[in-house]
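Sat 14:20. Reprocessing the chain from the morning session after the first attempt stalled halfway. Input below, unchanged.
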Amino acid sequence: MAREGRETGTLPETTEGRAQKGGWKPSRGFKIGISGVAFFAGILTVASIIAVTTEPDTGVVAVTPTPSPQPTTIAPRRQGPADEFTSAGADAYLGAVDQGATTAHPAPATSAGSTAGAATATPTIGEGWSATPAPIADAPEVAPAASGLIAGIESRFGVDILTAGQDWGVGEADQVRNLGAVQAALQALPPGVISRIVSGSGGTLSFLSNQHGQTAGGWQPYGDRAANYYTNQDYDGQNAFATNQVILQPGSAAQTIAHELVHAYQLRDTAPGAFVEALLTPEMKSFMQATGWKQLVSDEELLAVQTGSWDGINSLFSYQGHSLSYVTEHGSTAELYTPNPMEAFAEAAGLYYAHGDGFTLPAWADYWSWFNANLG
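Finished this time. Tokens:
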């Protein structure tokens, strides 16, 4: 779910100074002069505060280690539905679902136990809609060594790795490294997790890699930019349909890919686009109870806002567990990305199963014990 920008910031609040009372009555001219001095002093004070408080924090790095070599941009995590579904792209998508368009693909079916209608009308998370899916771009030719690696991954894990219109790297070395990260993520996660996501109502699990955040149907739910996310639905300009895709940007690390695979696992039994329903499964409730997450409203109230913003949905949960700060393999401090339990689950699982060499897991026994008992 991708995750778009995670960094948020606000300027610190300031308090107004109080005027001191005196024992004499100043003249009007004196008051005006003092007021002017105070006014300009206040401006300088506020400017100084802003300058200090906006200095970059160099002690905290991104939660997911940057691949090597680094991609030009770090794609944010999938986070949730757009705040407003009123753009032309959203209207087109919802219209396709409502009409049950079937010219190329069937309309997404509502899964057992889901809320009929509402679940299938929830667009894939993203804030930059493309009303008309973009044409699939030209891509670098896949080198022989990369082709052999693709064949081996597909045969071993039962997945599809798309190459038409995809960018797995500019040369053989880049392609082998990037595809090797896909293989490493698949190897790192428990076999039981992989077996549950490689096939399903959305078809075979497919991996894509491009600089445009583009699905196999050409849809760009995050706009025309690189992104890492999982989606169980697609849109080709006329039809909305179930799918099973991990979209990557070239250079993504195994831990990032594992995170998105865990999202596929979370959504394995939900209707296309019904992301909020994944927060209500017995498995998710067990995870929340074990790790200190609290749902602040009833299930019915949560389902009622599943087409709203993720900021609103996030506010319906509270984390009351221990600190999730940890030290990276580079010695810097990082904070696990946890706006809601779904992201906390995927982020912690990616860290646990697919962390890089030289990394020491933090002492989060509640998380690790739950993963061992429930995921393997």
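The chain is about 35% helix and 10% strand.
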